[in-house]
Amino acid sequence: MNGIFRFRFILLLVFITAFCSYAYELVLANVLSVLWGNVVQQYTVTTGIYIASMGAGAYFTPVRLNAKKVFIWIEVTLAALAIVSPLLFVYSDVHLKSISPAVCYALIVSIGFLSGMELPLLLRILDSDSATGDRTEKALFADYFGMFIAGLLFALFLNRQFGSLQVNLFLALANLGLAWICGLVWGFHDKHLRKFEVPLVSVIFLVVTWAVIQNLIIYEEQIARWIIVN
Question: pLDDT tens for residues 118-163?
Fold first, then answer.
């Protein structure tokens, strides 16, 4: 992979991860506002917790591990958390009232923490390419621009057209797709990724995609049923 293509590929990853990260925040805040009311409070508190968690994730990003492997598995973990979070939000609010806030905020912290690791890891992956001196500035621009587009699309189109739950599942599949694509691209030059991450993530991506498509209606109906019971 030549330097220019590598740089553009990383910028694309930065944009997509920032888009997904900010959209997750909006989805989680929207679900909490449905459960607990007070839209302004839920969006404000969720945003504050999420941003603080991202900062902690960036600070504690592992520096001695293989950045590519860590990034791939962070995307897989984020996808899993995204799928189960709305279910756990509503389930805890219905059946675990006393600890529901702790459960919900712990999930928000977890997603924010992992999301905060994405940009530092991608910058580390890019760091060896000395041909692009302004790479950090462009990566930060792609990160902020991705969040801007996510907020715009979520408010004006995605939430209205699909609803928060479907958007959440689409984001989860996007994270899994990124993990799979990164494994394929980076696997050409890394035999360890080729032997382990690529086949395993490929299986996870196919199985989860199939499960989401097959159970999308059941997923939404179950959450709606718990909300009505509540």
Answer: 999 999 988 755 555 567 888 999 999 999 999 999 999 998 888 8
DSSP code at position 158: I
Tally the domains of the chain.
Answer: 1
The CA-to-CA distance between both ends of the chain, in Å, stands at: 53
Which candidate, 158, 171, 172, 163, places its Cα nearest to that of 221? 163
- Please state, in angstroms and rounded to a whole number, the distance separating the CA atoms of residues 117 and 113: 7
d(CA 169, CA 80): 10
The string of DSSP codes covering 93-109 is: HHH-GGGHHHHHHHHHH
Tokens of 74: 């962070």
**183 near 70, Cβ under 8 Å?**
no
202 three-class SS: helix
At 47, which CATH number?
A: 1.20.1250
Q: Which residues contact 200 (CB under 8 A, 6 or more apart)?
A: none
Asked if 100 contacts 92 with a C-beta cutoff of 8 angstroms, the reply is yes
Amino acid at 178: L
What contacts 88, CB < 8 A, 6 or more positions away? 103, 104, 107
d(CA 11, CA 76): 20
User: pLDDT tens digits for 15-38?
Assistant: 999 999 999 999 999 999 988 888
The tokens describing 80, both together, are 């899993």
| Of residues 183, 182, 184, 180, the one with CA closest to residue 209 | 180
Q: Could you tell me the residue range of the domain that residue 210 belongs to? A: 3-229
